[in-house]
Amino acid sequence: MLSTIGKTNQKYIPATSKGQPFLKWAGGKTQLLHELLPRVPQKYNTYYEPFIGGGALFFAISPKKAVIADINDDLVNAYIVVRDFPEQLIELLAEYVNDKEFFYKIREQDTNNLQSIEQAARLIYLNRTCFNGLYRVNKSGQFNVPFAGYKNPNITQVERILADSNLLQETQIYNVGFDKVLDRAKKGDFIYLDPPYYPKSVYSDFKRYNKEQFHKDDHIRLAELYNKLTERGCKVMLSNSDTPFTCDLYKRWHVDKVYAKRLINRDVSKRGEVTEIIVTNYDY
């Protein structure tokens, strides 16, 4: 059964700007929005994004009714706190300083001992002040990115968090896998799938950022669900790496190859433009 944390009756400060991602995320789609936005259906009922990550497309289209999810509990908690407790979150973030010693003190915190707002503030703070704005954990689920020493990181993000909170008011947020949250998708709904990319080589940076792994069998399950959602009458768009395996999985649908900027890779020579695929089961 799906479950979500209930919302409060808190009074919100009006936001004066449009929502934007409050977190940077490995594989984030900000650089690919110029390819994704023209492919978004003009009409749909509920928007679904089960691999929400940084939510670049979600914030860009600002759907009136949405369901978002992820298996990363730290990430999901941050979205819930931004939605339900923006003022308290901002107040806590305002107490955080851009200091190396303070950074490692926060990084070493045990999230099991933190309240939800403290946990969200910790994630946002580390994301804003760590090297390359990267979320990465080790096999034990411990955040392990070093301090960056940026001069003026925008830690509190007041306008952005308030705008995001307003947008998220009509959004259901779940900490579940993609298959469970998409069980309720109906005809006329629009679904954007942005799973951890299938590796182009033996070593792939995209599979290292969460303690949860996404394996070949998971990609196959996702493709099977893509077909079932199509039969159900849903409009589905998917992003993935451009490989023979992924292209074969979705060969019955519209598969477009696009260029994307890859800024994260242990091998500097492999950073830069790479080809990815965007799959749609509808005409646009």
| Unreliable stretches covering 5 or more consecutive residues | 1-16, 205-209
Number of helices: 10
Task: Please write the CATH class name of the largest domain.
Answer: Alpha Beta
Listing every helix as H and every strand as E from the N terminus to the C terminus, the arrangement reads HEHEHHHHHEHEHEHEE
Q: In the CATH classification, which architecture of the largest domain applies?
A: 3-Layer(aba) Sandwich
CATH level-3 fold name of the largest domain: Rossmann fold
Provide the number of structural domains. Answer: 2
What does the radius of gyration come to?
19 Å
CATH superfamily of the largest domain: Vaccinia Virus protein VP39
Q: How would you sum up the major sheet? A: 7 strands, mixed
Q: Tell me the distance between the termini.
A: 34 Å
Shape annotation? globular
Write the layout of secondary structure elements.
Elements: H1 33-36, E1 47-49, H2 56-61, E2 66-69, H3 73-84, H4 86-93, H5 100-107, H6 116-129, H7 158-168, E3 171-174, H8 178-181, E4 190-193, H9 216-231, E5 235-241, H10 244-249, E6 254-262, E7 272-280
Parallel strand pairs: 1-2, 1-4, 2-3, 4-5
Antiparallel strand pairs: 5-7, 6-7
Helix pairs in contact: 3-6, 3-7, 4-6
